[in-house]
Design a protein that fits this description.
10 helices; two-stranded antiparallel ribbon; Rossmann fold; alpha/beta; globular; single chain; 210 residues; DNA polymerase, domain 1; 6-stranded parallel β-sheet; 43% helix
């Protein structure tokens, strides 16, 4: 019996795609003379930012590149980031059904908590596991296992809702039932590749699985 739902954040609960793409475009223009591949950048979504920046901007001081990335987002997050359709209704429904709700994200904790508060969702999530809470990041199982333990739940009773290959592999590694959101460009490809049984056309579809 499913009694726990854990969500990814970016691309799953909140549409941060354009903000993230534009943030990368900004630092590629600054450090790589504008030479960048949008498809490649999209493929890194779900990976901790620190890993992406240290790998792809290895010739530059990490803290400087990170500061440039974050500076671009100042004043833009609140204007450009929105929740996906029926997210609020679904979260409230799960809460009313006494389903335990958590987040396992590769985003840093401070920005995740601020975003949840801005969307008035912070009161619903009992556990938030972020990039700095783990040693091994998705697709390793550690983020999900920590969230499950924090909710005093079990893998067999948990759904993990995500949008990326990192999320699906993390769910498999943690022996959790994966749920894929269907609104990303590569959702169909991921569903086929990982043979995902549950694919959502909108977040409310999750209520049909519980």
């Amino acid at each position: 019996m499913i009694d726990t739902v854990i969500f990814d954040f970016d691309g799953t609960l909140a549409d941060t795609n354009n903000l993230i793409i534009n943030s990368f475009k900004h630092i590629y223009n600054k450090y790589h003379a504008g030479k960048w591949d949008e498809e490649y950048v999209l493929s890194t979504f779900g990976e901790p930012l620190v890993l992406t920046l240290k790998r792809d901007f290895s010739g530059f001081p990490y803290e400087e590149v990170l500061a440039s990335y974050r500076e671009y987002q100042v004043g833009r997050f609140e204007k450009e980031v929105t929740l996906y359709d029926t997210v609020i209704e679904t979260v409230k429904y799960l809460n009313n059904k006494n389903i335990k709700i958590g987040i396992a994200t590769s985003r840093i904790k401070s920005s995740t908590l601020i975003a949840l508060k801005n969307f008035d969702l912070d009161k619903y999530f009992q556990v938030v596991i972020s990039a700095e809470d783990v040693v091994s990041h998705k697709p390793d199982k550690e983020p999900l296992i920590k969230a499950i333990r924090g909710l005093n739940s079990s893998s067999e009773n948990t759904l993990y809702v995500g949008d990326s290959k990192f999320d699906m592999e993390c769910a498999f590694n943690a022996e959790v039932t994966p749920v894929l959101v269907g609104w990303q460009k590569n959702s169909g490809e991921l569903a086929e590749k990982y043979k995902i049984r549950h694919v959502l056309s909108k977040m409310w579809d999750l209520t049909k699985i519980i």
